[in-house]
Amino acid sequence: xxxxALLGLLACMASMGEGLGVEVEDVTGRQLEAAxxxxxxxxxxxxxKNCKTCDRVLSVLERVGEEVATNGITLVRVNDKKAAKTHxxxxxxxxxxxxxxxxxxxxxxxxDADAILDFLSSPEALDVPGQIEDxxxxxxxxxxxxxxxxxxxxxTGNKESSEVLNGLEKVDDYCDKLEISLVKINDLExxxxxxxxxxxxxxxxxxxxxILxxxxxxxxxxxxxxxxxxRSSGDEDDVIEEVEFKSLEAMVSAVENIAVLxxxxxxxxxxxxxxSVETIDDDCDTRGVHFVKISDPAAAYHYGISTLPTxxxxxxxxxxxxxxxxxxxxxxxxxxxxxxxxxxxxxxxNSMLGRLIRDSRNIVVxxxxxxxxxxxxxxxxxxxxxxxAPDELKKFLPPQNVRGMASET
Length: 409
Prior knowledge:
- With 409 residues, the chain is α/β, with parallel strands linked by helices.
- Helices cover 44% and strands 17% of the residues.
- The chain has 17 helices and 15 strands.
- The chain has helices at residues 2-15, 29-38, 52-70, 81-86, 113-121, 123-126, 137-146, 159-177, 188-194, 220-229, 245-254, 270-277, 281-286, 297-302, 329-341, 350-359, 371-388; strands spanning 25-27, 41-46, 74-78, 94-99, 102-105, 133-134, 149-154, 181-185, 201-206, 209-212, 241-242, 257-262, 290-294, 310-315, 318-321.
- The strands form three sheets. The chain has a five-stranded mixed β-sheet with strand order 1-3-2-4-5. It has a five-stranded mixed β-sheet with strand order 6-8-7-9-10.
- A hairpin with a 2-residue loop joins strand 4 and strand 5 (102-105).
- The longest helix is centred in the N-terminal third of the chain and has 19 residues, at 52-70.
- Mean pLDDT is 80; it is low at 1-20 and 401-409.
């Protein structure tokens, strides 16, 4: 705590023009390559001798160096033409940020301290692939102000925090697709300020409004579904969320029950249809059905939708098309609730079947002209498996409550 307070004091004095800064270490080309192997985030100034501009830029970097260090970035400088050429540097001075060895080159004014700080402190710059970003209190404040969705894992150095963090790494892959910034922070002062109680804890900011996760922190699937279900709970306007294609794919694979309205934004009827279905959005939320909309034609094509608008209900990623009147909000709600509470065999279109066969590891398809005969045959098959087949085959039996299936005892 004493060291952190001292760092904060030095940073404040530097920003007030007291002339305090940090020395940017001068390394050789070989030392640079070694540092790239060990440092997740490495800021490198490439310079040449007898360069007055290089001296001015170095002075700027020394002034901002303390704040850069608090962002977890190691800052060095190198005068090595071979190293510069290796990393596609042709002109001096130059500034690059290496994330896990991958270079991100700064293209702005090297004498602009604020611009350099923005470059080295942006969420994009600090996002290390495969790792949940560790942030400071000031960085968290900026994230919450500028990002619509921010999930914050408050942790300590104990074993429980480490175990939860390992599981959250899996959730982070989905969060990237869902445009949710998942970060972690170890700051006991914030824990007291937010009255979080015991750690570890997960807090979700939606449009700056926080909500605390109260479930099992080791249940990654539950956490992911909770994050998705609560995306719109912080909105001031009560409307169905518009999503992008990549977010929709993540939602369909992660959420057990999700309703998706595929539509054409240019259609003159859409305002009336959206107004109708938005009246049932709250009812869907309370029953655990996430409702979203998407106007991207590529998404409709991907899921085999040929006619717009179309409402599709996905249960465990399996689609079911609504063939009723979308302006009948009560009818739509009843249809969704019926599918929510049942375990019936889903009927799909030819294009949807093609996608399911392509994307699913295991799928059973009944091709039938006379569906009643198929149900009788399937029921009889289940009876034979139940009563005469080896035990290892019985795990393939459908649940007791498959709707529409005759019972045979």
